[in-house]
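How it folds:
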Amino acid sequence: MTDEIITAQEAENTQPVQEVQEKPLPEQVTVVDIHFRSNNKVYFFDPGKLTVRAGDHVIIDTARGQEFGYCAAGNHVVSSKEIVPPLRKVLRIATERDERINEENEQKEKKAMEVCQQKIIAHGLEMQLVSAECAFDGSKIIFFFTADGRVDFRELVKNLASVFRTRIELRQIGVRDKAKMVGGLGICGRPFCCKEFLDDFQPVSIKMAKTQNLSLNPTKISGTCGRLMCCLKYEQEAYEDLIKTSPKNESFVDTVDGRGTVIDVNLLRQSVRVRMEDEPDKVGCYKNCDICVLRNGKAKKTDPPIPKDLAPISSKPRPAKKFVELSDEPLPEVTIKGKDMPPVKPEPVWEDEHTEEKAEPAKASGRRNRRRRKKPAGAKPAAEQTQQPQQPQQPKQPKTQQPKPQQSKEGGEKAEGSKRSGNRNRRRRRPGGKPKTEGKAE
């Protein structure tokens, strides 16, 4: 009987355990994308029977309790391989009361930042406060800070707990986590990758910068956080594939022009620069597919010498180049706005150059002449005079003038007198700006 009772009790104890075990997810699962205020990282949640749209505010179940979230994408189907269990549920769509509580929590976070900063200065702690987060139900406040070493903040926690009358947590984070929470602009002018789309931080080493032939200056390969930039990881796999098909520096290769040593490697263009063995002053550029590697890398003491007759590419006869004569075919006709334009051959350049050279001194002499003398009012330009043939002059007929009022005549006489005086003043001036003197002329 005892054995039967024990087995029955064991069976009863194992039943709840079987209920707690998670059921395997189907191949296709309906989820919604939710993100929080602190970052733009998206998490999958089970909407259940709710229909959630992008932009809606929802209350979700998390490991820290109920939280306020923002919907980035509505109900959609994803593969079960993309889901990280456990898949938590969306409790409800946020109501007006939930919205009001969220606003109050935001105001409480701002006040908590100010109070905590004052307490840090009062205790003289060497730590930098980054942000504060208040739980949706108000059960606790979490403070994030950075510091060079370990900090004893036990007294600080007691003071904060006496002020806010709730649970207080202080978490130390790294400089990369700080950049992800605060955000900003990188040296490329775009927002931080960790703030925008990166889920987790990938390990980045200085070897990646060497592989990609980047400058090893820390100011050029480091981000705002002071660590190596995360974007060094993006192209590392591509560079590793290119290195497999490229020779190393100081490799001995054979080309169509002869054997030589590799002095420079361009991974992206898949080309190398080779210094010839017979002519050290000659350097050529060749594609990787046009060379044969006789020794990969720098020569070692234990390496056997390379035979001089080993030249698989340069020993072959080079094919003769074919000379292609240019055909004298007429130029195609050009159609502009429905009109056929006959082809016009460009004039030789030397004619334009000579004409420009001749035109420049003519323009300069014309400017000097215009300064020295004044043309009559009825004179025409020299170009028009040369084009029109000279005609015999005809006697001018006197024009009949109508009588004008006295005031207009006086005004006209004054205007003519001012013009004549201006003409006399201009005649007396020289190009240098000095007036003529009658004594020197005599």
About this structure: The chain is about 35% helix and 20% strand. The two ends are 157 Å apart (CA to CA).
